[in-house]
Design brief:
- The protein is built from 14 helices and 21 strands.
- With 508 residues, the chain is of the alpha+beta class.
- The chain has a seven-stranded mixed β-sheet with strand order 8-9-10-1-11-19-12, sandwiched between helices. Strands 14-18-13-17-15-16 form a six-stranded mixed β-sheet. It has a four-stranded antiparallel β-sheet with strand order 4-5-7-6, with helices on one face.
- Strand 2 (72-74) and strand 3 (80-82) form a beta hairpin.
- Helix 8 runs antiparallel to helix 10 (339-348), helix 9 (302-309) crosses helix 11 and helix 13 (436-446) runs antiparallel to helix 14.
- The protein is globular.
- The relative contact order is 0.17.
- Residues 1-28 have low confidence and may be disordered.
Length: 508
Amino acid sequence: MRNRFKLSKTVLLLAVALMLVNLVSDSQAQGPVSGGVLRVVVSAEPQGLDPTTNTAAVVDRIFYNNTYEGLTKLDRNGSVVPGLAESWTFSDDGLNWTFNLRQGVTFHDGSAFTAADVVFTIERNQTTDESIAIVNPRFYEAIESVVAADDHTVNMTLSTFDSSFLFNLARGDSAILSANYAGDLNAAPNGTGPFSFVERVPASSLTLTKNENYYIEGLPYLDGVVFSFIPDPTAAFSAIQAGDVDVLARSNVENAPAAADDPNLTVFNGASTGEVILSMNNRSAPFNDKRVRQAVAYALNRQDIIDIAQFGFGVPVGSHMSPVNENYVDTTWRYQQDQDKARALLAEAGFADGLNVVMKIPSTFSYATSTAQVVQQMMADVGITAEIQLVDFPGQWLEEVFFDPWDYQMSIIAHVEEFDIGIYSNPNYYYGYSSAAFDEALARAQSEPDPEERKQLYAIAQFLIAEDVATFPMYELSNALILRSNVQNFWEDAPIPAADVSEVWINP
């Protein structure tokens, strides 16, 4: 059975590969076309619309570079490039930075963008005030002071060298906010980007319209964008086949063969930053015992999970860092499937007669549900019986898994933050992992100015969490993207979880 599957999978992938050859159309070669409303499907609906207080990747997928912008940003190649800061300089020790801001920029409410907004945003992002509930103040811990030298110049002083400083300023969390905005960011976003917020229809859609006062001449090309919330992958694919929508952002891979065979559709199989993680609650039994976590690791086969659950689309990963990151090292060798070792470790931990666990899986994501079924079977083969409980995302999953009191044993979800290995040093993260050795390796890596030394330190950090089986990273999601063939210049890869449509156009 396994060999027949492997053969059919190989034939399928060869056929799909032949159909995924992307040719630049004559109309695209002639240049962009202005006008039209792009209709984009996202699988989940954001609970809130403020990227600084909401952890869901769908917020960045909708707003990053579309509605909100930071001082820096990531381009389609994953490079840090100027955003609202048109240039910057820094001291030899990397502690003093001067940012020169773009002039003539306005927020969507009409107020002028100035250095005061940058100071307000950074200081707000550093706060631990629970009434604001900033998600990631850790990204800004190294910033000792931020000062407006004049309306278009900002000086920042760091307490220590931070190798991720410019990268952190390019995150969705670092969207520059207006210091004088009186509206509710979770209900009515107010940014400087090429598209302004119009409305959200609960359980249906979110609409953006062209910012006629955008500071980059000629952009955007589109008149507007409608993001539709369609969690059912079959319904989403039917919608794009019928021409009711134009883009399936992060489509399900099972739709790729049929899409590639449709002359009206284009398929991208690009890179992403989404590591699919099997999490285990390190705080409580049975997963507070490293031997049980190791048994799970020895029970699983990453490549077979990819082949069965993802039709062969995906790349095995052994650490919580994307292979597109220059600091990534392959640690998948540390735990190769060995069912005898898994059973022995379970017996040593007191579970010779088997172990019953519960996996809470977000029902919104088909990759999670299909992966859970394969993981369930592989664990059953070594004596771990896993009950799959499908929970709503983001509401129930966030409440029961992600937030205190972390009422779960196991879960599966893709972590799409582009550089978030630092979460393993957060004792309040839902993994519940704690390691002084990891904390030290991470701290040294983040403060190391030499790139080669820094890479070695990140390698140590990755090995430590792999050795401890803090979690079990399984594979990197493919950025399976399906477009109507007249949609041009969409990002093929996803170096950040974003559906950046700032330079997209639609051919008539």
